[in-house]
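FIELD: query
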Amino acid sequence: MNTDMISYYKDRAVEYEKIYTKPERQADLQKAAEILQIFFTGKDVLEIACGTGYWTERIATVANSILATDINEAVLSIARLKTYTNATVEFNAADVYTLPPNKKHQSLFGGFIWSHVKLQELDLFVNTINRLVPPGSTIVFMDNNYVTGSSLPVAGKDELGNTYQLRNLENGTTHSVIKNFPSEKFIRNVLNGKATEIEFINLEYYWILKYTNI
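FIELD: result
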């Protein structure tokens, strides 16, 4: 069984967007896209963990520019093949922890990355994210709620409270993937002293967090 997240997303690249075809999630996906478009209209956006560009496409319709980054070249090779309307879109293979601060971008988006960060590393993660854009910037995260019958079941939990799912891919590989499902209260506690103007939007299948970094 593979526990390497980079290997998992490399193997998953060609089937990455199938998760967005679930019928029960379509209304939430449309609503989430509309919310993100409101947040990023006319903005220069730094996107982390962009994957195959599913959300990049939707933000690009209203943004001024997007620098979309991901650690995995396999998903970026798919994202680069898409057509992006309105915004100037650039892709860059990069580790979020080694990205240099960027003064151009005063908006940052991270889709479905928070849940893959170990609980004991969240302080480092948020501090790293906050330094990527100037103080007073708008930072937005989106991630999954756990919904029985739609989400994969939690297959395990470690001594620090991190939860894991077993994911079987079409190439026959099985991966143990860290997938945490934090509450709004937990997220607000993590952001204590690191953010202002915190807004938490809770949909049925997804949550969206917007805040201003300090």
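FIELD: remark
The chain has a mean pLDDT of 95.
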